[in-house]
UniProtKB/TrEMBL annotation:
<dbReference type="Pfam" id="PF00106">
    <property type="entry name" value="adh_short"/>
</dbReference>
<comment type="similarity">
    <text>Belongs to the short-chain dehydrogenases/reductases (SDR) family.</text>
</comment>
<dbReference type="InterPro" id="IPR020904">
    <property type="entry name" value="Sc_DH/Rdtase_CS"/>
</dbReference>
<protein>
    <submittedName>
        <fullName>SDR family NAD(P)-dependent oxidoreductase</fullName>
    </submittedName>
</protein>
<dbReference type="InterPro" id="IPR002347">
    <property type="entry name" value="SDR_fam"/>
</dbReference>
<keyword id="KW-0560">Oxidoreductase</keyword>
<dbReference type="InterPro" id="IPR036291">
    <property type="entry name" value="NAD(P)-bd_dom_sf"/>
</dbReference>
Amino acid sequence: MRIEGASAVVTGAAGGIGAAFARRLLERGADVVLADLDAGRLAETVGSLKQEFGERVRHVAGDVTTDEGVAAVLTAAARPVDLYVANAGVFAGFGLEASLEDWSTSWDVNVLAHVAAARALVPGWLEAAGPEAPGGCFVSVASAAGLLTQLGSPTYSATKHAAVGFAEWLAATYGDRGVQVCCVCPMGVQTQMLETGRTSEDAEATLGMRAVTTAGAALAPSDVADVALEAVSAGRFLALPHPEVATMHARKAADHDGWLAGMQRFRRSLER
């Protein structure tokens, strides 16, 4: 995927990784529609970017977990979208006490939002694909939790596994037919989500955030965007802002029981 001149959408773009993606895409010459449910934060972010990049910045405040919400975002673009960054995510629901509402919200935002976007975009991308370039690129911002696990939050772990699985399915089904897929799997990132987990009164939530920050350095959102866009430019499926995740994932695949035993020891050390 050629980023310069691309028509892009970034969801969850009011702050954190999404805002960093939007900035990097704009800096590299793309037109970007920023989408987020938080209209206030989104307006602040868009206002700052418009001062630098002008009319190449557009935005929609809305829910991208539905077909209608995705359609509204795509309509806001100046021309057909050929790069979609599915970044919106939630970290809600801890331990077995996680409510059905937590499960439903996590499933809708972390998984079904990706499905809705792919349904809207892939048919057109298949038609637009040529012999030397893809018709479009789908970037799934998942998590290292989708390759490993997330202590403290079964909802986050399960739905991020599903997000990775959906991205793999997209790549296996359409990757040789003109649809590029990139799955981004960072560990800790310096975002509002990380800070909320750190300050939560829920013991499982704080355990989960300690697990993330203990396992590796918390990166700046711009670092994640840089690694992801480098993978997009190189045509790679997996983008790992924390390279050590590759080693962890390989150990899990080589000895699943041993890896689980190690995770149990890690959990006990955090609980102490």
